Amino acid sequence: MISAQQQEEFEQLFPFIRQADSGFVKNFYAACRYLELPVGASICDEGQQCAQLSMLLDGVGRVYKLSPGGREVTLYRVNAGEACVLTASCILNQDSFPAMAITETPVRAVVVAPDKVRNWICQEGQWQHFIFGLLSHRLASIISVVEEVAFKRIDVRIAEKLARSLAQGNDSLQVTHAELAADVGSSREVISRILKDFTQRGMIETGRGSIRLLAPEAIEHLARQ
Questions:
Q1: Residues 6 or more apart from 219 whose CB is under 8 A from it?
Q2: What is the pTM of this model?
């Protein structure tokens, strides 16, 4: 059971619950529980069975693949108002989790047990709509990540990330070379070489865990290639 305040917060972030049948809403809140996790906490490891579906009230989770050599590729992030599509898929199919998931920031979430996730699919249209919408939206984004890793140059992908920061009104990023490597599916050494090249071309200035964007037009031009 979650508190009235948590229910109100949940309804603001997950509007499907406001459209659901009153009987389902009552059962939903009675079955859910509230969970807090610190930064860097493991949510699920590859090969594990998913113990719950987490719907985030606050914070960020990262879902990624880890190669045998230790290289990471970020598949997607889960933010407030979202849930993990791979968790939902694994619960519905009763499969093991095919990736890794950790918290990038402290996380607050409402969590649902696997049997409830499956049973409610057949009982409540709004829950079914929420789960299927989650699958549709996130699977499209995962395909996009695969296409980028397979077909786009790493320097272009880095430029795209920098250009997105510019579009949000930021002229700097707080990110390490290792974090950037995980985001674009490369190694830290390759990222360091590319950032060194960007620095020599006057596009950026790097600091400890930060990148300052000096030439927006050049960054955006490369991102469009």
A1: 159, 162, 163, 166, 203, 204, 213
A2: 0.73
